[in-house]
Amino acid sequence: MLPSMNYPVWDVAFGSGLLIAVISIVHVFVSHFAIGGGLFLVVSEKRGYRLNDQAFLDWVARHTRFFVLLTVVFGAVTGVGIWFTISLVHPSATSALIRSYVWAWAIEWLFFFLEITASLLYLYGWKTLDRKTHLWIGWVYFWSSFMSMVVINGIITFMLTPGAWLESGTFWDGFLNPTYLPSLGIRFGFSLVLAGVYALLRASREKDRVLRATLVSWSARWIVPAFATLPLFAYWYISKLPATVWASAQGRTPTPTRHATLILVFSGFALAGSVWALLKPRRFPLAASVVVFAAAFLTMGSFEFIRESVRKPYVIYGYMYSNAVLAHAGPGDGGLSVDRIRERGVLASARWSRYKEISPGNEAQAGQEVFRLQCQSCHTISHYRGLTQLLRARNWDESAIYFRLGSLDKMVNGAMPPFVGTDAERRALARFLAGLNPGIPPSQTLPGPLPEMTGGKVFEQSCADCHLESPDDPLFSRLRQRDETEIYELIGSLNTLNPAMPPFGGTDRERKVLAAWLRGKVAD
Fold first, then answer.
1. What CATH code is carried by the domain that includes residue 288?
2. Which of 220, 272, 384, 501 is deepest in the core (most CB within 10 A)?
3. Are 114 and 234 found together in one domain?
């Protein structure tokens, strides 16, 4: 499997990761509706026959047309969009997934073909097929869509929890990974929620008040019970995650922590609105159904953001970093593992690099090429996760950047891959990044003073890239037995205590303020 340094880099100015996220979240919101909605249609049709409710059946037929247009047409287009974007942004990861699960993908495509065929037959069979045949086709659609999820779920969960596959490399060890079953439960449960959410939105627009109340109540009955199962599957899912992954959603890393909070907020809105619809269907307004719909969308989006962000710094956990560098050397790695790139250099290893070596006068240009190869999969220059704003806020000069590049895998609580390459490439990257902040002369060796002289600000400027402001962080636990003077002395010799740490770049006054602040924190 050849990493993406064997492919040209697709330069998306506003961030390739954000582009994938937007397309994926929209697709997931529709594709899960395709599963739960299929079950909703066939069960609703049976209800209409049982109660001999023709008005209800007519609405289900109209809902089928909406369902097919949204899932088969729009859903399929966004699905192709995902393949297009991931193939350009993460070609090596896409290649790894295809090579490892080529027969799984082939089986899923067969189910998808059956799904499309059954959905069209179901749509046009409302007026031409007898009840028994029409219901049978509806069940065929549901089971084919459910089996598509069964297959895809194994591949998606593999990316976060490959489990024993890292040692064995076998199909079933990767497919039936630790989070496979709980994730399947979460996704199927949420597909039932979405079946009710979409139906609730359309039911709220009905003009017939009696039919409207019936539809609102029926839709809410799908949402509330399904919502009740999600915490159980979520607890099971969390119990199967690696400890470092779950820690990311509990405050270790900002993005998953923020979205974990958003899930609680948005799901609360969606559930509260659904309970209202269940208890008071006649008084449930269209505006409330829109809120429930939006809250469900944001809940699903937050879950997908968490799933993607807690995997950092990997795109396939424990195997391939987000910049497509392989974590460990092995047969067929193309020389693009961490250790082998450090021997040869990233510029010499990458097939599509414009510069193969660094010479006097091309340091900044070569550094930009190193940025493109190692950083651009997650960062942009000045847009989504832009580095220009960060470097100007931190006020780091070339020397400070160089030191920090040596400990990238320890910064942001381990959310970044390590820098791989030669020392000359590391210096070239530092030169390029320093040039993004024209306020810092290249000759300056220390960052400028902080605007406000507080210990918290100094900590944020100098320490927060690698350390949490938490009593559980190793920094604070190691300082508990130190007094303020000892802490002050330690701050002055950081790079001798640990070569991965850059030297303290502040003034003597900032050093004293930081020492006093740290002592106060560990004394609390």
1. 1.20.1630
2. 220
3. yes
User: How many residues belong to the chain?
Assistant: 524
DSSP 416: S
Q: Which residue has the tokens 């100015």?
A: 13
Residue 98, CA distances (Å) to 61, 69, 214, 277, 478 in order: 38, 29, 46, 44, 46
Instruction: Please identify, among 403, 434, 465, the residue that sits at the C-terminal boundary of a domain.
Output: 434
Say how far apart CA 38 and CA 36 lie, in whole Å.
5
The pLDDT tens digits of the residues spanning 176-195 come to 999 999 999 999 999 999 99
Domain match, 74 and 16 both: yes
Sign of CA dihedral 227, 232, 237, 238: positive
Q: How many domains does the chain have?
A: 3
Q: Domain limits at 59? A: 4-321
Residue 27 maps to a domain: yes
Residue 263 maps to a domain: yes
* Average pLDDT estimate for 452-480: 73
Please check whether residues 41 and 81 belong to one and the same domain: yes
Which pair of structure tokens corresponds to residue 54?
Answer: 């023709």
Q: To which H or E segment does residue 380 belong?
A: none
Residues 6+ positions from 292 with CB-CB distance below 8 Å: 197, 200, 201, 223, 269, 270, 273, 274, 277
